Amino acid sequence: MSVSTPMLVTFVIYILGMVLIGFIAYRSTKNFDDYILGGRSLGSFVTALSAGASDMSGWLLMGLPGAIFLSGISESWIAIGLTIGAWLNWKIVAGRLRVQTEHHDNALTLPDFFTSRFEDKSKILRVISALVILIFFTIYCASGVVAGARLFESTFGMSYETALWAGAAATILYTLVGGFLAVSWTDTVQATLMIFALILTPVIVIVAVGGLDDSLAVIEAKSIENLNMLKGLNFVAVISLLGWGLGYFGQPHILARFMAADSHRSIRT
Tens of pLDDT along 110-146? Predict the structure, then answer.
């Protein structure tokens, strides 16, 4: 697949745009608190969209559609569970965590918060939680970089290795330069793009096929079972898929957005 000029220009503009945001964030970063947690200055709009984009990137645009394409609409139980989990996380955890982390020695990280909240003089909680985040989040971040590289490879016709290095280099650069604000602001831009993609893609596909009825006919022709929400599932399997939503309560990149909100009122908004 050859790279057309418009696609190449789009790719370059995207990468440069992310890096530019990093340098803009650098100018707003005055001290260590700003670099680590954005000075707890995120408004409701940035808090919400950056939390959503940081969690729902690769799996939402590639993983979940792929699962539904292969197994049918029954895989939607994953999305239902995640929707419930996300709502409960905002409802139960977000506001309390925002208030408590500031109250307990203005904790900037979760290990700091655990140490202060539970008065752990031995620092065992700090070490264990930091190791858990370091080990498992490294794997999580790697999967995100791979997803981005596969997207660039299929969309822009780049080699996988080139896409991998370009995406990773841009991400490392704007994070290194702009810190937490850069990450949050770029996530907000990416979330906006994701929203438009998620809305427009199915609409364009339905129109291209000839309408909703024709689209359903295409799915039925492949397999009528693909429209069955319980295809191949029993009660335990449904609960298992819904259980994906439990992961929200411990994901550090989402919890960090809650901690960085400018107030608990922004969380409510």
Answer: 999 999 999 999 989 999 999 999 999 888 888 888 8
Collapse the DSSP code of 164 into the 3-class scheme (helix H, G, I; strand E, B; otherwise coil) and give the result.
helix
Distances (CA, A) of 66 to 23, 27, 69, 73, 256: 35, 40, 5, 11, 29
Map residue 78 onto helix, strand or coil.
helix
> How many CA atoms within 13 Å lie on the side-chain side of 251?
20
Position 159 scores a pLDDT of 83
- For residue 15, what pLDDT is reported? 86
**pLDDT tens track for 43-65:** 999 999 999 988 887 778 878 88
CA separation (Å) from 238 to 37, 161, 211, 233? 37, 38, 31, 6
Distance CA 57, CA 189 (A): 12
| Structural contact between residues 227 and 73, judged by C-beta atoms closer than 8 angstroms | yes
Q: What is the pLDDT of residues 65-109, one digit of tens each?
A: 888 888 888 999 999 999 999 999 999 999 999 999 999 999 999
Quote the radius of gyration of the chain (alpha carbons, Å).
Answer: 21
Which of 20, 40, 38, 21 is closest to 29 using CA atoms?
38
Q: Are 100 and 112 in contact (CB under 8 A)?
A: no
* CA 130/CA 114 separation, integer angstroms: 10
